[in-house]
Amino acid sequence: DLYNNQLTGSIPAELGNLGKLMYL
Description:
The protein contains two helices and no strands. The protein is mainly alpha-helical. The chain has helices at residues 2-8, 17-23. The radius of gyration is 7 Å and the shape is elongated.
């Protein structure tokens, strides 16, 4: 979901805040 997160700009639920940090 991390790679998908960066591509879509959405925050996967399983990543939560961590996903937001990685996306930013």
